[in-house]
Amino acid sequence: MARSDASVAVALPRPLLSRRARTLLTGYLYLVPVAACLGGTIVFPILKAMHMSLYNHVLFKPQEYGFVGLGNYRRLLRDETFWLTLWNSFVWVFGSVSLQFVGGFAAALLLHQSFRGRPFVRTVTLLPWIVPGVVVALVWEWLYQPNYGVINDVLLRLGWLRERVAWLSDPGLAMPAVIATNVWRGVPFFAVMLLAGLQAIPDELYEAARVDGARVIQRFRHITLPLLRPIIIVATATRIIWTFNYADLIFVMTSGGPANATQITSTYTLVTAYTNLDFGYAATLSVVLLVIMLVFTILYLRVTRGIESVT
Amino acid sequence: MSRRHDDRLARILGGPVLWAGLAALTLFALGPFVWVFLTSLKTRADLYATPLRYLPAAVTSANYVDAWTSRLTPFSRFFANSLLVSSVTMVATTCVSILAGYALARFRFAGRNALLLIFLATQMFPAVLLIAPLLSQWYALGLIDTYQALIYSNFSFTVPFTVWMLVGYFDAIPRDLEESALIDGCGRFGALCRVVLPLAAPGIAATAIFAFVTSWSELLFAITFTTRTEMRTLSAGLLFMVGQYEIQWGQLSAGVMISTVPVAILFTYLQRHLIRGLSAGALKG
Lengths: 311, 285
Prior knowledge:
- The complex is a heterodimer.
- Chain A is mostly helical.
- Helices cover 69% and strands 1% of the residues of chain A.
- Chain A has a single domain (71-310), classed as MetI-like (MetI-like fold, Orthogonal Bundle).
- The longest helix of chain A has 34 residues, at 19-52.
- Chain A is flat, with a radius of gyration of 27 Å.
- By secondary structure, chain B is mainly alpha-helical.
- Chain B has two domains: 2-40; 65-279, Orthogonal Bundle (MetI-like fold).
- Chain B has helices spanning 2-40, 44-47, 62-69, 75-106, 112-122, 128-141, 147-171, 175-183, 188-217, 220-224, 234-242, 249-270, 274-279.
- In chain B, helix 4 (75-106) runs parallel beside helix 7.
- The radius of gyration of chain B is 24 Å and the shape is globular.
- Chain B starts with a helix and ends in a 6-residue tail after the last helix.
- At the A-B interface, helix 1, helix 3, helix 4, helix 5 and helix 7 of A face helix 1, helix 4, helix 5, helix 6 and helix 7 of B.
C-alpha cells in the first residue's frame, strides 16, 4: 500500500546487493587478514600435525620416511617416557600453581594495604612475571650454580647445608628446583589478579561487619574469601592450563633432565621436534597435547561460565 | 575485652607484620635481579672468587662491552633482530586485529560467537604444539633463517590475544557516534578511522605494546626457526650463549640485563591496562 505512490517518484537503480548483504560482506572482508594470519600459523599447522603423525618422519633418516598409519600412536602407548611426562606434568602444575596461589594471595593482601611507596613495591613485585622466560631460567640457573651460586652459599653460611648441592642435576632435587623457579615467576600473576579482586570489594562491607563486631579473621573468612571466589577460580583455571603448556623454563634449565626427572609433556614434545628432529612422533605428541588442551578448555569454559564478566 | 584483643591483632597485622611482609616480598621479587646485576658488574676475579664475593671489588663495564661486541654472541645484532621482529609483529598484528576486532564488535554475522570462542580458546594453546608442523612448513617453503618465518609464526599468539582485547575496547565505544558519522557520509572504513580509532587509541596502544613484549620474550620459535647466529633474537641468543663451550656468566648476566630493561620500562607504562591484559593472556608463562 505504501508502494502505491511510489510510481510518482523515479525508481532508484536497485543495488546489486541488498544493504544487509553489503554490511555482512564488509564484515567478512574485515576478517580476511586475520583468517590469513591464523590460517597459516594455527589452523593449517594443526591439520598438518595430524597428517604428519601418520608418518615415520625423522629429519636425518630420510630413507626411513613412510606412511605408518597409527604406528606412532601405538608407539606412544608403549612409550614409558610419555607416561612419565604426564605424571611429571601433574607434579609440575600442582606444585607450581598451589604455591603461586598462596604466595600471590599473601602478596595481594600486603599490596592492598595503604603504605608509603606502594607504587614502587607493586611495580617491583611484577618484575618476575614480565621479563622473558629465558631470562628467568638463566637467572635461576646462576642462582642454583653449584660452585658460584648464591643459594648454596647462603645455605652453607646458615649451616642448613653441609656441602654444595647440584640443584639442577640431582634427579631428586631438579623438579623441586624448577618448580621453585616457576613459583617465583607466577606469584605476581596471582598477586595482580587477586589485588584487583580485593580492590573491587566495597569498603562499606568491612565497615558494616566491624560495627556488627566481626573480627579481623571473621571479616576475612566471611567477606574477603567469598567475594574473591570468582576471580580465584578464573585465575587458577587459567594458570593450570598455562603451566601445563609452559615449556620455556624447564627446557632452558634442564632440557627435561636429569634422566627425564623434569620432563613434562610439553617439553617432551619440544625436545622430540627440536633436539631429536623426530617430526612424526613430535606431531603425534602435538595431537595428544591438542586433545588434552581441548578437554581442559571445555572444562575451563564450564567452570568459568558466568564468572568471566567479573574479571 | 575481645574487642580490644581484636584491635591489637589488627594493629600488629597492620604494623610489624605488614612491614616484614613487604620487605620479604621486595627481597623475593627483586633479589635475583640484584644478584644478576651485581654479577654483570664483576670482573672475572670477583666472579669466581672463593669464598663468594657478594659485592664487586671493582666495578667494570667490560661484560656489557664484551657482550655487545662479541663475535661469537653479538648482542648488538641480537638486539637489532629482536627490535625488528617485535616491531614488525606489533604493527602487523595491530593492523590485522583492528579490522577483525571492529568486525567482531560491530557486525552481527553467523558464527560470530563461535569465532570469539575460538579466539579465547587459542589463548590456551601451547606454542610447542605448533613447533613440529611449523618447522616442517618453513623448511618446505625455504623460510628457515628468515625474519618472515619468525614474524609470521609470532602471529599465532599475538593475533588472538590482540583481537580479543580490541573487541572489548570497541564494544565499549557507543555506536551512536559512528552512526552519525555514517549519516554524514563517511564509509564504514572512514568511520572506523575517524571516530572509533581515536577513541580507542589508548587501549590499542597498550595492546600493541603487549604484542611487542610477547614477541620480544618469545623463545621457542626463535630457536627452532633460526640456525645462523646473525638471525638470533635476544632470547635465542641468550640460550645460544649457554650452549657455548664454557658459560661466561659475566657476559651472560650483561645479556640478561640488556634483554630485560626494555621490557621492564614498557611495562611500567602499561600498569593501568595490566589486569585486562594479563587475564586475556598477554603473558602466559
